[in-house]
Amino acid sequence: MGDCLEKVLGLIAGNGVFPIEIAAAATRGGFRVQAVGFQGLTRPDLSKCVASLTWHQLGEVEPILLALREAGVRSLVMAGKIDKIHLTGPNSSTFRADERASAVLERLENRTDRAVMQAVADLLEREGFVVQPQSEYTPELLPTAGLFGGGEPSVQQRRDLAYGWPIARRMADAGIGQCIVVKDGSVVAVEAAEGTDATIRRALDLTCGGITVIKLAARDHDPRFDMPAVGPETIRPLLEGAPSLLAIEAGKTLVLERAEMRELASAQQTSLLSVGQADEVSWNLAEGSI
Length: 290
Hints:
Helix content: 25-40%
Number of domains: 2
Mean pLDDT: 89
Distance between the termini: 60 Å
Shape: globular
Radius of gyration: 19 Å
Structural class: alpha/beta
Strand order of the largest sheet: 6-13-11-9-7-8
Low-confidence stretches: 1-5
Strand content: 15-25%
Number of strands: 13
CATH topology of the largest domain: Cytidine Deaminase, domain 2
Number of helices: 11
CATH superfamily of the largest domain: LpxI C-terminal catalytic domain
């Protein structure tokens, strides 16, 4: 019985394909995946990749804890996007806070993504669950440093990257957002509540394309819930403004559906670059200029 319980993995699933990729990888590894999904957020096709999927409203803490316990879950992963608007807009049709959720929110000093998700992860661990890092079962989604799709960035794009990377790092460290957009040595958009995809579209509205998108996490990010992720939907808006560059942090950013990303990038002259620590150190020493 103990061996069986050890092979059960809980999955708290938000939006997007990432929960599906985790479920598929864990299942291949011999785990029985017991998933919790949120009405109006989680993709219904997750049900094809898991042993069971129970549906809840976002904010229903007690029913979720009960479902996980009844499924024999000890370790779990939180994965998938939950837009900030669902956390800051209590009147949303997708949000229904029970007494436990309301108590957690009332104790928060602010409602940044990081603060809310930290509180959720800590609550789960106080309840006896082990919350695993998001990449625990999918390390292959973390690219090493170098080009991972499209052509080589232009000289100007590399200048914009060197200029913007330290700024993006400060924005992430401050909890403002994980993405900024740069063009010709000027920041044209910074991510806030709207998310990365909308930030890119806003930047394209302000420019004629040829932008450099930088996405990374805060240095003190929590790998249980705060790992940046990119996928085809991230670069699809960039195709309207090619040639552009998407730069992410090597070993710390999840790349979803990489084959499709490469295909899109190659067709539309969009560069996909994973930045290593050595480059970041040199850019910081140069204070963002080359």
